[in-house]
Input
Amino acid sequence: MRLPILLLVVLLMVACSPPEKEQEQLPTALQDPDVVQDIKGSLTSRGYSSDLVDALFIDVLKQDTSLQALLDAMDRQVTAHGDSTERLMRFEARNRSYYDAALAHTAQLSDSLEREQQRSILRQSEARYSEAMAATRDLVQLYDSLQRRTNELVELIKLKRTLVMMEKYQQQEPSADALMKAELERIKALEKRLEAALKR
Output
């Protein structure tokens, strides 16, 4: 009769004992040395590199769903912007291509007066086009500048949030002083034995 009760008590103690929290609290990137390679695909799909900062940031995003949603919205904006401005970029490229080719064609005119006249006409036309596009180009530059700033803000968030994780990890790691003192004693003992062997 005592044995089943004793067994039940032992099982209850094991079940109620607190789990090892330290390993669970560690970010995935700090638990597995190969995790940086394992998540490389998910990082590069978002445009991230594959270093430890980016690996830790994946853990940040898993914990902070609102930040994840914000970055998803940013990704959608980048895609939508590319789709929206594709026609404009193509339009600009065609105009550049035309004026470059047209000026090159003037070299085939043997009459120097006609050649210079056509070049003048083309340059004036290109200047009018550039003037008409000036406001649009300014807006493109402003958008590009703001996009660079949003990327910088993501980097700042990434650095701030991953630094918190690393400093927490540093505090969780037990001191290595005792380990290194023991290693030092072992190497000293080997040194003495080697010196003794040298004197033989």
